[in-house]
Amino acid sequence: MKKKVLIGSRERSRSPEAMEILNAQGYELIVNPHDRALTENELLEMIKGVEGMIAGSEIVTAAVIAAGAPTLKVIAKQGVGYNTINVDAAKEHGVAVTITPGANSKSVADLALGLMMAIARQIPQMDSSIRKGEWYRHTGVELRGKVLGIIGMGNIGGEVAKRAYGFGMKIIAYDVYPRQEFIDNYGVTYLSLDEVFSEADFISLHAPAMLETAGMVNMDRLRKMKKTSYIINTARGELIVEDDLYKALKEGIIAGAALDVFAQEPPQNSPLMELKNVVFTSHAGAYTNEAIVGAGVMAAEEIVRVLSGSEAKYSVVK
Ligand SMILES: NC(=O)c1ccc[n+]([C@@H]2O[C@H](COP(=O)([O-])OP(=O)(O)OC[C@H]3O[C@@H](n4cnc5c(N)ncnc54)[C@H](O)[C@@H]3O)[C@@H](O)[C@H]2O)c1
Ligand SMILES: O=C(O)CC[C@@H](O)C(=O)O
């Protein structure tokens, strides 16, 4: 009997290269027919009898993993933020969970810099004002000479530092594991979390969503920031207390924000939408042709490794 593999990732994040790798193994592919994340009910149906799964942004709950057991052997996240997968349940059922480190870091870093420039020069605001027939020149600020604070200096944080260094920014960072290569290559100075918040002109978040980071950007930290400073979040919505950010933006405690990720996606009736000093993108950091192919291929290779009896290369189940 053919081994079944569920492709959970939505249509536009699927790469033909990844599908070819799986097809070449003779697997039967069960494919998410939608251009959206599968719901829990859909997953509960589709996971039955499946041995491997490529996961996109859908939430893989304990119930879904239990419904896939004991056939399910591996869930390969096409991406790096595995807070969407119940890893404890996977461990309990002997299911490997893998990620694709580095595959989308350049794309996310490009977007973080794009957002930084968008808020520094008010690019979206000018675009919408011209469309209304106006001709208003916003005065912005240069990135050169400004202090960039990076929270979470891993693969994406490192790529952001590389780009910001090219722009002549001074880079400070907070990470639980400082890396010498970033000090040597981009002159990064590691500081405490509170020092980064008080010294930065721009803060870019790149830490994973976990107990220790949930709500790390709250009113206490926002009040430590300069009134002229900006915050950019391309990591996870859980890192920011959105009500506090709204208040800080509305009351001029900070100058602006750019958000690719939200506590609830898509955001529903968020007061942030009323504000002019915020720029939004739709969790699109990893949505480039290059990252989709890179991460898709890495995820497919993990499925093949595990289903052919080898060890996964990038397992997150300890
Ligand atoms: N917007 C998007 O589409 C998108 C795409 C990819 C990743 N992401 C998010 O970005 C995050 C980072 O991705 P990455 O590839 O750089 O991962 P990574 O593992 O390479 O880097 C994460 C860094 O955060 C550090 N860290 C861990 N705990 C911390 C803490 N309590 N405080 C500060 N730093 C801490 C780690 O030491 C590591 O250096 C992912 O977890 C994911 O949630 C978002
Ligand atoms: O939800 C997605 O498809 C993007 C995944 C991305 O956020 C990641 O963590 O790598």
UniProtKB/TrEMBL annotation:
Gene Ontology MF term list: NAD binding; oxidoreductase activity, acting on the CH-OH group of donors, NAD or NADP as acceptor
Keyword NAD: yes
InterPro entries: D-2-hydroxyacid_DH, D-isomer_2_OHA_DH_cat_dom, D-isomer_DH_CS, D-isomer_DH_CS1, D-isomer_DH_NAD-bd, NAD(P)-bd_dom_sf
Top-rank taxon: Bacteria
Domain spans labelled D-isomer specific 2-hydroxyacid dehydrogenase NAD-binding: 113-285
D-isomer specific 2-hydroxyacid dehydrogenase catalytic domain boundaries: 15-316
Record carries keyword NAD: yes
Reaction it catalyzes: (R)-2-hydroxyglutarate + NAD(+) = 2-oxoglutarate + NADH + H(+)
Family: Belongs to the D-isomer specific 2-hydroxyacid dehydrogenase family.
Free-text function comment from the UniProt entry: Catalyzes the reversible oxidation of 3-phospho-D-glycerate to 3-phosphonooxypyruvate, the first step of the phosphorylated L-serine biosynthesis pathway. Also catalyzes the reversible oxidation of 2-hydroxyglutarate to 2-oxoglutarate.
Record protein name field: 2-oxoglutarate reductase
